[in-house]
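Sequence in, structure out.
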Amino acid sequence: MSVKTEVTKSPTEGHLISPVDPAPNAEVVNQKIKMKKHMGLLEGVAIILGIIFGSGIFISPRGVIEEANSVGFSLVIWILCGLLSMVGALCYAELGTCIPKSGGDYTYINEAYGSLPSFLYLWAANVIFVPTTNSIMGLTFAKYVIQPFFPECDMPDFGVRLMAASIICFLTFLNCYNVKATVKLQNVFMFCKIGALVLIVLIGVVWMSLGNVENFSNAFGHTTHNPGKIAKAFYSGIFSYSGWYVLVKLLFWFILILSFSRNYLNFMTEELQNPFVNLPRAIYISLPLVTIIYVLANMAYMSVLTPDAIVSTDAIAVTFGNAVLGKFSWILPILVAISAFGGLSVHIMSSSRVLYAGARNDHFPVMLAHLNVKTLTPVPSLVFLNILSLIMLCSSDIKLLIHYCTVVETFFVTLSVSGVLYFRWKYPKMERPIKVHLAVPIIFVIICVFLLILPVVESPLVFLGGVLITLSGVPVYYFGIAQEKKPKKFRSVMRGATILCQKLLLTAHEDE
């Protein structure tokens, strides 16, 4: 999605227009912004596929099979993750059409449970989800770049983290300086991402058709019966379906790219032709298709590599390519690295706009709602998220980072979907253009509750860390938002910080 960078004047107030205002596919009707309805079913399916296919499928298989302990059960988990994503998508379809407001999870939680839980979602998204996702994508890029140089030994941990930090800083700078350059490269990144996945599937199909299926004998042997490990395996699998990018993002002024695959089209309903028919159809078509492709990709991995080989590698596509492509094995790591590079670039761009939008609505310090006066990009938000992303690189364990943020993320997704049940009870006559069977949200919420509870025994510190960081938003909310009259000292410090930010980053509020 392209982002305007020129300065225009508001027809009514003469104020500067934000570079995220209006959306690229908007038209002005009587000085109002209205989205063109130019998207059909095919485009809706393409959007979901484009967002779901990310770097997750190149890193999550290790986490799934390590916890599942068997090839057969790993494939079952990939199938169940796809079904769970589709069930969740249908719930979000109802939420998105009965509450026709932008904002995704933020809006649904706010409408159902009030401002504090919705703020905590926004807080957790920007303090946990976004920087952790940036770190995961940066580490994925780094490991796929470095792994070919260390085929027989472990990669240097410091080198991996340094490479990840460097690429995060570079892409942050690029988004600060020239966002158009990152947008123009997205077609190349998308081609590489899909190309790598298709290549893996085709190689696997050919490999298995030649009779190489010995790794599937006794497929369910040694399957784990530990509920905590099963839940953690689900976390790794669901990460690939979410596109992590993500996450459901706060949206006030334009349609953001990258969000949970299951509710991304909620943000697109203004553009979707006959959305109440095509939205469920897009979900029914795209998510089973993604599930089939992911299962085939994992079968390809498992037909070539043993479970021990998968668990022992940090870059499964590199190891896979080395085993079957010979002198052409360099193709896969390059495609995956470019894919991760592109995904990280878009995620940095879109997530900074989320933080910027939250600051404009007084949920974050006002300095984060400032734009650079030359590039008209939200430089303070970009720099702030860059710092948090670098902090997350204190660990290079991608599986740990996935579990760390997915626990908190799952809680808020559960809270959002439980809103379907709340609205059915509180407002039974609410207009619901898309209405799922009551059993659908009930099943989804029950499964998510179990996924939240079961890993506590296995990873209590990860769970506790996520809870503490989320709850740290409570005093921030009451002191910084709910309290109308702030202490003089607090206002003085924030004013000084804002002035310093303006001087260092050459920023100003859009209305100035």
